[in-house]
């Protein structure tokens, strides 16, 4: 079955996780290279471990071709899961926004999988959490926790947060 390609944004928030991001980012981009309507958003949430320098030195081509969009904020002193992920979702341009932790791999073709699910049911949220307790003894792998995919319009309708109180700069 042929599905309409929806624009997908993989949102990765990183605060002092340079080592993990250097292992996963390029692989995740390669694993989803065949999906045409995909961007990776990296939000550097005031990392102090050289993330900004690594980005500038290692992924310029991905930034130039708009596969990767890098943002940085210098203001938060401590990590806030909800604030940082909400901020990244707001910065994303996709029809579908999907949180990916900096130390997690998407696996090959994950963007195609997301596209298929949202084409089959436009009124869905993809998550590894079994809210309705439909699976007995359900224990998903550790590297999928925190992953959630939702239509950006639905996310924007539901938020009641002040999330733009930090200055965020796009590079370059």
Describe the structure.
There is one protein chain. The chain has 172 residues and is α/β, with parallel strands linked by helices. The protein contains six helices and seven strands; from the N terminus they run βαβααβαβαββαβ. The chain has one domain (8-171): Spore Coat Polysaccharide Biosynthesis Protein SpsA, Chain A (Alpha-Beta Complex). Mean pLDDT is 85; it is low at 160-167.
Structural class, by secondary structure, is: alpha/beta
**CATH topology value:** Spore Coat Polysaccharide Biosynthesis Protein SpsA, Chain A
Give the averaged pLDDT, no decimals: 85
CATH first level: which class? Answer: Alpha Beta
**Unreliable stretches covering 5 or more consecutive residues:** 160-167
Main β-sheet, in a few words? 7 strands, mixed
Count of distinct strands:
7
Radius of gyration: 16 Å
Q: Give the DSSP E fraction (strand runs of 2 or more residues).
A: 15-25%
Distance between the termini: 40 Å
Largest beta sheet: strand ordering = 5-6-4-1-2-3-7
Percentage of residues in helical conformation: 25-40%
What string, H for helix and E for strand, traces the elements in order?
Answer: EHEHHEHEHEEHE
The number of helical segments is 6
């Amino acid at each position: 079955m042929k599905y309409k390609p929806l624009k997908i944004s993989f949102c990765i928030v990183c605060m002092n996780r340079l080592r993990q991001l250097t292992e996963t980012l390029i692989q995740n981009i390669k694993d989803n290279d065949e999906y045409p309507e995909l961007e990776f958003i990296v939000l550097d949430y005031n990392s102090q471990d050289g993330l900004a320098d690594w980005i500038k030195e290692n992924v310029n081509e991905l930034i130039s071709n708009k596969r990767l969009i890098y943002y940085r904020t210098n203001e938060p002193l401590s990590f806030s899961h909800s604030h940082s992920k909400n901020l990244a979702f707001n910065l994303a341009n996709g029809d579908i926004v999907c949180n990916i932790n900096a130390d997690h791999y998407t696996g090959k073709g994950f963007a195609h999988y997301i596209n298929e699910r949202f084409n089959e049911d436009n009124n869905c949220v993809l998550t590894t959490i079994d809210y309705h307790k439909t699976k007995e003894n359900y224990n998903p792998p550790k590297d999928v926790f925190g992953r959630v995919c939702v239509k950006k319009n639905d996310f924007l309708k539901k938020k009641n947060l002040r999330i733009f109180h930090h200055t965020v700069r796009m590079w370059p």
